[in-house]
Design brief:
The structure holds 2 protein chains of 2 kinds.
Chain A (H helix, E strand, L loop, with lengths): L13 E4 L3 H12 L4 E5 L9 H13 L11 E5 L12 E4 L5 H12 L7 E4 L6 H5 L4 H6 E6 L8 E5 L6 H13 L4 E5 L7 H18 L4 H10 L6 H9 L3 H12 L15 H8 L12 E3 L5 E4 L6 E3 L15 H6 L3 H24 L3 H11 L6 H8 L1 H11 L5 H9 L3 E2 L2 E3 L5 E3 L10 E5 L3 E5 L4 E6 L8 H13 L6 E4 L6 E3 L4 H9 L3 H19 L5 E10 L1 H8 L2 E11 L13 H8 L9 H12 L8 H7 L7 E3 L5 H14 L9 E2 L4 H9 L2 H5 L5 H14 L11 E2 H15 L3 H13 L6
Parallel strand pairs in A: 1-2, 1-4, 2-3, 4-5, 5-6, 7-8, 17-18, 18-20, 19-20, 20-21, 21-22
Antiparallel strand pairs in A: 6-7, 9-10, 10-11, 12-13, 13-14, 15-16, 16-17, 23-24
Chain B lengths: L5 E7 L3 E2 L10 H16 L8 E5 L11 H9 L6 E5 L5 H14 L5 E9 L18 H8 L1 H11 L4 H20 L10 E3 L2 E3 L10 H6 L19 E10 L1 H7 L5 E10 L8 H13 L8 E4 L4 H11 L12 H4 L3 H19 L3 E8 L3 E9 L1
Parallel strand pairs in B: 3-4, 3-5, 10-11
Antiparallel strand pairs in B: 1-8, 1-9, 2-8, 5-8, 6-7, 9-12, 11-12
Classes of the chains: A alpha/beta, B alpha+beta.
Chain lengths: ~775, ~375
């Protein structure tokens, strides 16, 4: 199924030329959106003409580039000699071949013989200017040609840098923006046609400064990494990042950037390829993780070693905790004020990078917000350089530069004098003035109809309300049920369609409040515990039978009870990168808020052999190991999402599309489903299910606790002791069985041990 | 009036691993029809004189359902006048199919039969899609009936078949099968199957291995047990068929009989030691033929597990040099309902090839049974 919104972008078929990690990854992402794509590379040997393109698909299968097992079926592999004609069918052709101007231009000339005029043609170049690529290619080509610079891996990295020009056809630019967002899930940042565009220009500069300043100031690699992590760059730190991306890239990436930038550019002061330390690492084949050694390596005994930047020898690694840094790794002002090497390093690095970004921002983008977004999405910083500058105060950065005897760029001076780079809804433009800041709408801006500490009901317009959970990890605390009950009582009066969703960047909801359950167990409040379980069960059933359509907007983590809510709504719109599932067994539980019942009720509608056991066996295989999806598409394969549920590729589209789905259900005349009956296999079926796991138990692959949970689950999924295939059970009856079975399990010490361990460590206990 | 029943032809498909093997995409009824067509082509037996197709299948449901014995006959292009029936005795289904054909022939209820079997363990799981054992059975009873791996562990421990004994047995099976494959001794019985990915002509489960490699494997059924994946027969897809007919039928159509069915027996034992089934069934069959094990030149005994096969070999005092001389199920695979006909067909063929007099085909059966058939060279 095509991703929601992708069908409106005008890109119904795509082609990618070049099946390396970027090209094949971009092709996989088109397939992930349900868009057929041709992947072409140079021809292989005799009889294996498409081998290079096929190996690109194989690479993505191995690397996890595809979200669904059927993804590769949407990729047609070919080669640029035999199959160039396929490009006539494409609405967007992405060139992702090696960085060689002549090769690219030769290819473009060949593409022009087959391409339909108006088809988008884009290059994924990271180093070659657009102007050089289009020289002498003709006006029609220039109007349709843009640079779309993706980041590796294309499925994961959210940034796409877009370089257009005044001669670009506005229709082409609009289609690229729309398709990049709705089909590929990318956030588009408009860039000017300058070397390295934004992210690599600033990101490479930062990496060079962070590495060489650490060396100059005598910091260990561990300490430098900890300080960088404190600034909110990824946990790898700077040297860990070099090990991850590969130190062998230094001569190529930094080399090409240096050769493209004028001599006065500050990057020449931090000439990484010329640095003896980096040259030595490259010459000795110590590229980082891929070669087993770089700034860090594993010693023979498995322990971690770090490179001593002074001696060039390895020594046992001495991890530096954030808490051991000045300011405890949280207080940046304290870190910058430290007069030791750590403080000098932090201040110098931040000031140098912010100054560079401020000096060049006017030539890179329309405003500094674009620079921050590019660094945040392209280099995974929590906040870009201008936001960091605002956090510590631009004046602090200016003071550092003055201490270092470095010039203060005009934009930075202006920000220091004028209150910063950002104001409420404004951001500083290239010319130094404040301009409107483009931001996605926030749910908190919608009127709250009613709310409490854990949840809010908001009016999102057009008669639709949004039930937003905002407790810790968005767990389903009792207060969430308070408001959900109130919300359902208002259905049809305050709103006539409901969306359940939130703005949290990572978590839809972690499900039931385990710590609450454990506290009730420990204090022996069995009646309260049963009440909590019964309440979830009742309120979820009311969601199922609600008089208005309810749609879940699922994203990030949606585990346990969160998955069960989704299973009770009339439809789900999911962000493509969805981690949804019923992992209860890992915490010693079984799903008891209707998870077993709803999955069982839905199972017969899915393909496969029939009979009373088919549905039970299918659910047993999903719930017993606590399967959790790695994408929304996989959740559909597992059965947590229905085939009719929608998927959006970009998170910003989630709530709007969920709202549209709720309105569509309302306008189609919503009716609650009424009583639902489920065919169950009975006690004989439970024995049948258990016969599939006794060998695993005997062989030691299942613990006694696993086995006990399996028995409990098998009993629920087959309707308990009174289950009978000739007598379909009401869903409420089955839900009661779930709850009663869980209450018995909760009395087991081994189960409590699992819950306790999960709460303390976040990891399952295999007892 | 009784007649003698003869085996006058034997064909099988290649045996390949379930799910990951080359035949996983082939329907079991197509596989069955394929070997029937090949059998009739190779023997030259006229299709319109086939009385019945007697077809073994351990889990006759889904693609193996609908009375697959009738389905494979129709798909093979037999005339509608030839009947078809399905036989289920789990792993023993297709020795039983041969017996039923021979039994009908001997009571003068027909002169020519196709007996055989099919199992796609890729497409119909072992135990079937709807496992619904009687609710009165306790966990032990269900384990004994269904979890045959655990019964192999019990046989190993009760009959002192050590891990080393099992590894040696498995290694011998693979070595014999590999040698037979390389010498072309298996090819003669195989009818290659055309698939979308090309012709499949070779058995897919045979491996080159070593005792050292086998010793490193983890046990699969019991922690601290002795049975490994390598000392168990693999899940397999395959089909087999033999022609069962009278001497007169052979003479009339110029066929060369391979062997005469001399005696047959089934027996029961405790489900929890089902692997010992061949001991009693073989003894009964020998007794009915008035023979002892010393009179037997060729033994084709199924290797569901090395543990049970070795325990039976010892109890029956079978000379290892007479046992499974082209390898057994550990190396070749065990497509449940098809295996029995492979044992009978192979034993009959070996009598001819090796110039021997008598052969025993026997196997164990889940649920606690054994089955045995004795053949005399024709």
């Amino acid at each position: 199924m095509t991703a929601l919104g992708a069908e409106r972008t005008g890109v119904a078929r795509a082609a990618v030329i070049g099946a390396g990690s970027m090209g094949s990854g971009i092709a996989a992402q088109f397939a992930n959106a349900g868009i057929p794509v041709d992947l072409l590379d140079i021809p292989g040997g005799e009889g294996k003409r498409n081998a290079p393109a096929e190996s690109g698909v194989a690479r993505q299968l191995k690397a996890g580039g595809f979200m669904a097992s059927g993804g590769p079926k949407l990729v047609r592999t070919g080669n640029v000699e035999d199959d160039l004609g396929w490009l006539a069918e494409a609405d967007w052709i992405v060139e992702a071949i090696i960085e060689d101007l002549d090769l690219k231009r030769d290819l473009y000339k060949r593409i022009e013989t087959v391409r339909r005029p108006g088809t988008i043609l884009s290059s994924n170049t990271s180093t070659i200017p657009r102007a050089a690529l289009i020289a002498d290619m003709g006006d029609g080509f220039a109007a349709d040609f843009v640079i779309t610079h993706f980041f590796n891996p294309p499925r994961v990295m959210q940034l796409m840098e877009l370089v257009t020009a005044p001669e670009t056809d506005p229709g082409v630019a609009n289609r690229v923006r729309a398709a990049a967002k709705a089909a590929l899930g990318k956030t588009v940042v408009d860039c000017r046609d300058t070397p390295g565009f934004i992210a690599n220009r600033i990101g490479c500069f930062w990496m060079a400064v962070a590495a060489l300043e650490a060396k100059r100031l005598g910091l260990s690699v561990e300490r430098a990494d900890a300080i960088n992590a404190a600034f909110g760059i990824p946990r790898t730190g700077i040297f860990g990042l070099f090990d991850l991306v590969g130190i062998d890239l230094v001569p190529h990436v930094w080399g090409s950037l240096l050769s493209a930038l004028p001599k006065q550019d500050d990057l020449h002061r931090f000439d990484l390829p010329a640095d003896p330390l980096f040259s030595e690492l490259v010459a000795s084949g110590r590229y980082g993780r891929k070669s087993g050694a770089g700034f860090y390596r594993k010693a023979g005994d498995g322990s971690r070693e770090a490179l001593d930047l002074e001696t060039g020898d390895y020594r046992p690694a001495e991890p530096v905790a954030a808490a051991d840094l000045p300011g405890g790794g949280r207080d940046l002002a304290a870190l910058l004020a430290d007069d030791g090497a750590a403080g000098r390093y932090a201040a110098s690095m931040l000031a140098t990078v912010v100054a560079y970004a401020a000096e060049h921002a006017p030539e890179l983008a329309a405003d500094v917000g674009a620079v921050d977004i590019a660094i945040e999405l392209g280099y995974s910083w929590r906040a870009g350089p201008f936001k960091l500058a605002d956090r510590v105060g631009p004046a602090t950065v200016v003071a550092s530069l003055e201490t270092m005897g470095r010039p203060v760029p005009a934009l930075l001076a202006k920000a220091a004098a004028d209150g910063g780079f950002y104001a409420a809804d404004q951001v500083r433009a290239a010319d130094g003035r404040m301009t409107v800041r483009q931001r996605p709408a926030s749910l908190s801006e919608a009127r709250e109809i009613v709310g409490n500490d854990a949840a809010s009901l908001r009016d999102i317009g057009d008669g639709v309300a949004c039930f937003e959970v905002h407790s810790k990890m968005n767990t389903l605390a009792p207060a969430v049920f308070d408001l959900l009950e109130d919300t359902l009582a208002r259905a049809g009066r305050d709103f006539d369609a409901l969306v359940i969703g939130n703005d949290d960047p990572r978590t839809f909801s972690a499900g039931a409040d385990l710590s609450f359950i454990l506290s009730l167990l420990e204090s022996g409040e069995d009646a309260t515990l049963e009440g909590y379980l019964r309440r979830g069960h009742d309120v979820f059933h009311r969601v199922l039978q609600a008089p208005v359509p309810v749609v879940t907007a699922a994203h990030g983590l949606a585990l346990g009870g969160a998955c069960e809510i989704a299973l009770h709504t009339q439809g789900v719109v999911a962000h493509a990168e969805l981690t949804i599932g019923l992992p209860e067994t890992k915490a010693g539980l079984i799903p008891a808020w209707g998870g077993c019942t709803r999955l069982l009720a839905r199972a017969p509608g899915r393909s496969g052999p029939k009979g009373p056991m088919a549905a039970a066996a299918q659910c047993f295989e999903v719930i017993l190991p606590g399967r959790v999806s790695r994408s929304a598409a996989e959740a559909q394969e597992i059965g947590y999402l229905a085939e009719t549920d929608g998927i959006v590729m970009h998170r910003e589209l989630l709530l709007p599309e969920a709202k549209a789905r709720a309105i569509a259900l309302r306008d189609a005349g919503h009716r609650p489903p009424g009583p639902v009956f489920v065919t169950v296999a009975g006690p004989s079926g439970a024995k049948g299910l258990m016969s599939t796991v006794t060998a695993a138990h005997a062989a030691g692959r299942m613990t006694d606790t696993d086995f006990m949970l399996a028995e409990a689950l098998a009993s629920v999924l087959t309707g308990g002791p009174d289950g009978d295939p000739s007598r379909p059970m009401a869903d409420r009856e089955l839900m009661d069985l779930e709850r009663e079975t869980l209450l018995v399990l909760l009395q087991e010490p081994a189960v409590r041990g699992r819950i306790d361990h999960m709460l303390k460590t976040g990891k399952p206990l295999r007892n | 009036m009784t007649k003698d029943a003869f085996i006058a032809g034997y064909v099988r498909s290649p045996f390949t691993f379930a799910r990951k093997g080359a035949l996983a995409g082939v329907r079991p009824d197509d596989l069955g029809a394929h070997v029937i067509r090949a059998l009739l082509e190779r023997t030259g037996a006229p299709a319109d004189e086939i009385e019945d197709v007697v077809w073994g299948c351990a889990f006759p449901e889904a693609e193996q359902g609908l009375n697959i014995g009738r389905v494979v006959g129709l798909l093979a292009g037999l005339p509608e006048t030839s009947a078809g029936t399905t036989v289920n005795r789990w792993c023993g289904s297709s020795i039983q199919a041969v017996q039923m054909a021979a039994g009908m022939l001997m009571m003068n209820a027909g002169e020519a039969f196709v007996a055989g079997g099919t199992e796609s363990m890729s497409r119909v799981p072992m135990m079937g899609f709807n496992v619904l054992p009687h609710p009165s059975w306790d966990k032990q009873a269900i384990d004994d009936y269904i979890n045959v791996g655990l019964t192999a562990e019990r046989v190993a421990s009760e009959h002192d078949v050590t891990r080393e004994d099992q590894d040696r047995f498995a290694h011998a099976s693979h070595s014999k099968a590999r040698a037979a494959q390389q010498d072309g001794r298996l090819g003669a019985e195989i009818a290659p199957v055309a698939t979308a990915a090309g012709d499949v002509a070779l058995d897919g489960c045979v491996r080159e291995t070593s005792l050292e490699k086998l010793a490193e494997l983890k046990t699969v059924f019991l922690e601290d047990g002795t049975v490994t994946a390598a000392s168990s027969s693999p899940m397999t897809d395959g089909a087999t068929a033999v022609l069962v007919c009278s001497k007169e039928f052979c003479d009339r159509h110029g066929l060369t009989p391979l062997a005469r069915v001399e005696s047959f027996a089934v027996s029961g034992c405790a489900p929890g030691v089902m692997g010992l089934g061949p001991i009693e069934s073989s003894r009964k069959a020998l007794k009915r033929a008035g023979l002892t094990i010393d009179d037997i030149d060729i033994v084709e005994m199924n290797e569901a597990f090395a543990a049970q096969a070795e325990a039976c070999r010892r109890a029956l005092e079978i000379d290892p040099d007479k046992l499974n001389i082209d390898g057994g199920a550990i190396a070749l695979g065990h497509p449940l309902g098809a295996t029995g006909t492979r044992l009978v067909g192979k034993a009959a063929t070996l009598l001819k090839r090796e110039g021997k007099k008598r052969a025993l085909a026997t196997q164990c059966i889940g649920g606690g049974m054994g089955i045995a058939m004795i053949l005399e060279a024709a």
